[in-house]
Amino acid sequence: MSEELRVTATPEGLLFTVHVQPRASRSEICGAKEGELRLRLTSPPVEDAANKQCVELIAKTLGVAKSKVSIKSGAKSRHKVVKVEGVDHDALLSLLKIQ
């Protein structure tokens, strides 16, 4: 799945959409599809567990602190808008292994 991830640069950081599949057998980044970053997470979508794991997985992959990654909208949805601070556009795509 090597489709282009839609990323918006703002003064606060980079914004992109994430599609989350909770209760997967393992946590992983599956690439981009239809402009969204696809994530599989082992956490269930209750008590913010999947949101926390989403932030942790993106932060770990990009090598930034968890405080630099936040969910801007869609906390109760599978489709979330995520903001990342301290990473430029090319580094984001490179670290997420998306062309």
Low-confidence residue ranges: none
Between the first and last Cα atoms, what is the distance in angstroms?
A: 10 Å
Strand content: 35-45%
* CATH architecture classification name: 2-Layer Sandwich
InterPro entries: DUF167, YggU-like_sf
Protein name: UPF0235 protein Gbem_1494
Family: Belongs to the UPF0235 family.
Explain what the structure shows.
- The protein is an alpha+beta fold and 99 residues long.
- The chain has a single domain (7-95), classed as Conserved Hypothetical Protein Mth637, Chain: A (2-Layer Sandwich), CATH 3.30.1200.10.
- The protein is 21% helix and 35% strand.
- The protein has helices at 49-62, 89-95, and strands spanning 7-10, 13-21, 28-33, 36-40, 69-73, 79-84.
- The longest helix has 14 residues, at 49-62.
Any key phrases for this structure?
YggU-like_sf, alpha+beta, Conserved Hypothetical Protein Mth637, Chain: A
